[in-house]
């Protein structure tokens, strides 16, 4: 069973009140030192995975820039294939391997748009990307470790299905507030604390005013 999916590390920077972005979508919670740490970690994994909202709102390139090492494969969850042609991900996909995971519900015109790019398109799930099936397919492609970098909806799906092995949370010295600001883990949430995955704190690293908390799932 363990080998039927890659090793999953959930990674994020949160404010003290557990937000990963403000209500107007400012998500710059990391420090310079923390970004270097993250990029070193990126260079050691086979792939980075994010949701389509993170791509549309932050327009990340998801490469290794502040450390030495190779770029991991980028995986985007985008059921309807709505990613913009102008996104940094698609604009750089001739240089950095990119997988867009879509569902069977993807409109034909979006599929055709994606097919014009040198990317791999993986189709799973009826109208939403089926995570378990996707991970199985990625495992067959020899992708052994995936760093999941959010956002909140994607984090919830991995947490809900207990589909992760480690979790690295950078606690940043900010208070964001706001009902509409995105929390680290979104979705419908658990009703009981006992439904939460059980975590063991492996290490705490202090980077000036930021704390890097490293957990493993029991
Ligand atoms: N502080 C940090 O470290 C950090 C890191 C990353 C992101 N962020 C912030 O997080 C925010 C975005 O979070 P978000 O919750 O709105 O969106 P998200 O998690 O980035 O993307 C969610 C979307 O991914 C698509 N998706 C497809 N299959 C999925 C599946 N199996 N499971 C989960 N999602 C799937 C869904 O759209 P479809 O149904 O259309 O496919 C879903 O609505 C941004 O504001 C960003 O700045 C912060």
Annotation keywords:
2,5-diamino-6-(ribosylamino)-4(3H)-pyrimidinone 5'-phosphate reductase, RibDG_C, EC 1.1.1.302, NADP, nine-stranded mixed β-sheet, 218 residues, NADP binding, alpha/beta, globular, 6 helices, binds NADP nicotinamide-adenine-dinucleotide phosphate
Multimeric status of the protein:
single chain
In the CATH hierarchy, the architecture is: 3-Layer(aba) Sandwich
Helix percentage: 10-25%
What small molecules are bound in this structure? NADP nicotinamide-adenine-dinucleotide phosphate
Largest sheet: 9 strands, mixed
Task: Tell me the number of helical segments per DSSP (H or I, 4 or more residues long).
Answer: 6
According to CATH, what is the topology? Dihydrofolate Reductase, subunit A
Q: Considering the protein shown, what is the CATH homologous superfamily?
A: Dihydrofolate Reductase, subunit A
The H/E string reads EHEHEHEHEHEHEEE
**Terminal Cα span:** 16 Å
Spatial order of strands in the largest sheet: 5-4-3-2-6-1-7-9-8
- Stretches where pLDDT is under 50 for at least 5 consecutive residues are none
Q: Quick one: overall form?
A: globular
CATH class: Alpha Beta
- Helix/strand-derived category reads alpha/beta
How many runs of DSSP E, i.e. beta strands? 9
Please state roughly what percent of the residues sit in beta strands, choosing from under 5%, 5-15%, 15-25%, 25-35%, 35-45% or over 45%: 25-35%
Number of domains: 1
**Residue-averaged pLDDT:** 97
What does this structure look like?
This protein is α/β, with parallel strands linked by helices and 218 residues long. It has a nine-stranded mixed beta sheet with strand order 5-4-3-2-6-1-7-9-8. The chain has helices at 32-42, 52-58, 88-91, 108-115, 131-140, 152-160, and strands spanning 7-15, 47-51, 73-77, 98-102, 120-123, 145-148, 166-172, 199-207, 210-217. The chain has six helices and nine strands. The mean pLDDT is 97. The chain has a single domain (2-72, 130-217), classed as 3-Layer(aba) Sandwich (Dihydrofolate Reductase, subunit A), CATH 3.40.430.10. Strand 4, helix 4 (108-115) and strand 5 (120-123) form a beta-alpha-beta unit. NADP nicotinamide-adenine-dinucleotide phosphate is lined by residues 12-13, 20-21, 25, 27, 29, 50-54, 57-58, 77-80, 128-129, 131, 149-154, 157, 182, 186. Residues 12-13, 20-21, 25, 27, 29, 50-54, 57-58, 77-80, 128-129, 131, 149-154, 157, 182, 186 line the site of NADP nicotinamide-adenine-dinucleotide phosphate. Belongs to the HTP reductase family. This is 2,5-diamino-6-(ribosylamino)-4(3H)-pyrimidinone 5'-phosphate reductase. Its EC number is 1.1.1.302. Keywords: NADP, Oxidoreductase, Riboflavin biosynthesis. One of its GO terms (molecular function) is NADP binding.
